[in-house]
Amino acid sequence: MNEPGEDSWNERLRGLLLGLALGDSYERARGSFRRRGVIDVGVATQLAAFTADGLVRALASSGDQLAPGQVAPALWNALTRWGAQQEVIPTTDAQGAPVANGWLSEVPALSERRGSAPATVSAVRGGRPGTLEQPGSSSGGTQVVTRLLPTAAVRHLLPYEGIYSEADAEFASYAVLTHGEGSAIHSAVATASLASSCLAGMDVREAVGASPFNEMGSLFSAARDIAGGQPRDPSALRQWMRDDATSAMTGGIYTAISFPEPDDVQDALDFAYRLPGGRGSATVAAALIGAVHGVHALPVEAVSRLELSWVLDQLALDLAQHVRGLRAVSERYPILN
C-alpha cells in the first residue's frame, strides 16, 4: 500500500462522498439517469451528508481530537436535525429555537422527502438514540451501511484491533442509533472499515485481504474470491442477496472488485443496480470506487448534474481539514454543547 499524500487523501474522501451520492441517485433513477437536467439524490445521500456534518461538529467541538463516546451524540444530533428539516419531528425545541441549524439547514434538497428511511424516522420520532445495550430498532435495512460510510474518514483516529476492539464498539454505537439487527451492525462497521482502508491507499481487493474482521471476514473473502473466479456474474452472489444491509455490503464489494479500473464506474453502476436482491449495492460500490480512485474517476457528465455535488464536495473538504487538524470555517458548524 502506498500511503497517499494530503491532496490524494482529500481527493479520495471527495470520491467516497460523491460516489455514494452517484450510486444512490442511480438506484433512485432506477438504473438510468435522465439525459438532461438535475439528477436528484435519494435519502441515503441526505443521511450521509448529515453524518459528515455531524463528524465535523464532533471534531470541531473536541479540538480535532476524538475519543470514544464523543461522536455518537454528534451523529444523533445530526439525525434529529435531518428529521426536523424533513418535518417528521417538531421543527423547534421546547424553548422555541429551531432544531435544524448550520448551513445544511439552508439547502432545500435536504428538506425534501427522497425515499423511505423507516428505522431512522422511527428512532428520531421516538426521541431516544439507540445504544449497544438497547438499539434504536431491530431493523437490518441497508440505510445503516450507507449512513455510516462517511465515518471511514475518522476510523484511523481511534485504535483498531479487531471486531471486538474498543474502536469497533465505538463505531457500532453509531449504527445502533437507528438500527439493531446483528449482521446489519457488523456490515455497517465492516464496510466503513473497508472504506477507510481504501482512503488510506488500498484497492478494494487489498483492503479485503487486510481486514481483521471475524464476523464479516468470510463474506468479504467470498465476495473477493467469487469476483476473482466469476467476475461480473449477477447470479454469483444469489445466496447472500436479500435486500438487507449485509447484501448491500457484499454486492458493493463484489462489484467494486469486478470493476477495478477508474473508467469502469458507469459499468459498475449498471451491474450493481441489476444484482438480484442487491438494493444499496450500487451506492456502496460507487463509494468504494470513489475512495480508491478519487473524485476524478467519477463521470463528470453525471457528477456535474448531481443535485448536491457542491454540498458534498464542501462537506468532504471541511471534514478532511478537521481530520488533518487544519480546521474548517467554524461558523458553518455550531459547536456542540
Automatic annotation (TrEMBL):
Gene3D superfamilies listed in its UniProt record: ADP-ribosylation/Crystallin J1 (1.10.4080.10)
Which InterPro entries does this one have? Ribosyl_crysJ1 (IPR005502), Ribosyl_crysJ1_sf (IPR036705)
Query: According to the UniProt record, where is the region Disordered?
Result: 120-141
Q: What is the name of this protein?
A: ADP-ribosylglycohydrolase family protein
- Originating organism: Nocardioides abyssi
